[in-house]
Amino acid sequence: MSFSSTPSFIFLLLLLLSHSITNAANTSNRRPKYQLSVNYYAKSCPQVDQLVASITSQQFKEAPISAPATIRLFFHDCFVEGCDGSVLISSKAGSKEFAEKDAEDNKELAVEAFDTVNKAKAVVESKCPGVVSCADILAIAARDFVHLAGGPYYQVKKGRWDGKLSMASRVQSNLPRANATVDELLRLFNSKGLTLEDLVILSGAHTIGFAHCRHFVSRLYDYKGTRQPDPSIDPRLLKALKMSCPHYGGNTDIVAPFDVTTPFSFDNAYYGNLEAKMGLLASDQALFLDSRTRPLVQALAKDKQKFLQAFAAAMDKMGSIGVKRGRRHGEKRRDCSIHMG
Question: Which positions are annotated as binding substrate (predicted)?
């Protein structure tokens, strides 16, 4: 997937608008909290941030989709088994259990995100062999892309080890669904040690990036079995989305931007869109419809700096979910896609 296939649809949208809890909760989350540190590699690989930046800046120019894709990859990593690079593992040929990345809910993770991590890992390995984990490289790359897209630059705490487990069967119950209710979202986020505020703030990552039609097509034609569109979609957005996403038999590669007003800028427009009934996913729009989350949506819509500051803090918090440390629980992979064995 690349941006090149989407401009006409975005143009159409802009014209018309004018202007994924269970008992699989990670055992790693129950371990004593291990403190990460900004200076973890100060002696062993002091230039790690710059090395990763040399790749992320290049990727952002050559394949801008790498930004939302890598931020999403980090989210999918942290929510399943903790932030341990387990989403980067490739399934073993002949194995009965697929790895996380081959789970249904991860099949749309863009290849550009994996490419970014692999390229950054290769550069880091050339300077600091066997030192920096894939999990830390993913966390640093996600931060870089937030900043490159116009969001905040924040210090990434480091010291994650790579996880030894990667199982597709753990994925579905640990990721939010596109039509999740606020209750379901809160249960999931709470199970990761995250709050209602974290839910609303981290959802703001949808200020950039795209979703495939299948994640919202039921809102356009048959909302909750009513055979009618979701009443909480702005009619102009509904019209634009229907033109790109037919009820049946449409092109499965078609995508729409989460943020229909400024799809390439990391800003707070996502929240203003929710106020204007222009959320793409039902789980996005639900944040404005629910009285518990609406006040924060409104506050963030009004204050871009508040959002950017809060987002940096929430990413830092999410980045410490289920962190592994030491050889008993983790490994330092040389190749991010293969367990050390």
Answer: 176
Q: Contact 176/184 with Cβ under 8 angstroms?
A: yes
pTM of the complete model: 0.90
* Residue stretches of the annotated binding site for heme b: 206
Angstrom distance (rounded) from CA 48 to CA 41? 8
Alpha carbon of 81 to those of 77, 167, 174, 325: distances in Å?
A: 7, 9, 9, 13
39: tokens are 């200076």
Helix, strand, or coil (residue 81): coil
Active site annotation includes 76: yes
Q: What is the mean pLDDT of residues 28-42?
A: 74
Cα–Cα distances in angstroms (integers) from residue 118 to residues 108, 335, 338, in the given order = 18, 8, 11
The C-alpha atoms of residue 14 and residue 262 are separated, in whole angstroms, by 9
Closest of 103, 256, 282 to residue 175, by C-alpha: 103
Q: How far, CA to CA in Å, does 57 sit from each of 4, 26, 67, 120, 127?
A: 19, 33, 10, 11, 19
Residues 6+ apart with CB under 8 A from 29: 82, 191, 192, 193, 321, 322
137-155 mean pLDDT: 98
CA dist., res. 181 & res. 287, Å (int): 9
C-alpha span between 324 and 135 (Å, rounded): 10
- Rounded Cα gap, residues 33 and 198, in angstroms: 19
Of the residues 76, 147, 212, 329, only one is catalytic, namely 76
pLDDT band at 30 (very low <50, low <70, confident <90, very high): very low
327 SS3 class:
helix
Q: Which residues are annotated as a binding site for Ca(2+)?
A: 77, 80, 82, 84, 86, 100, 207, 259, 262, 267
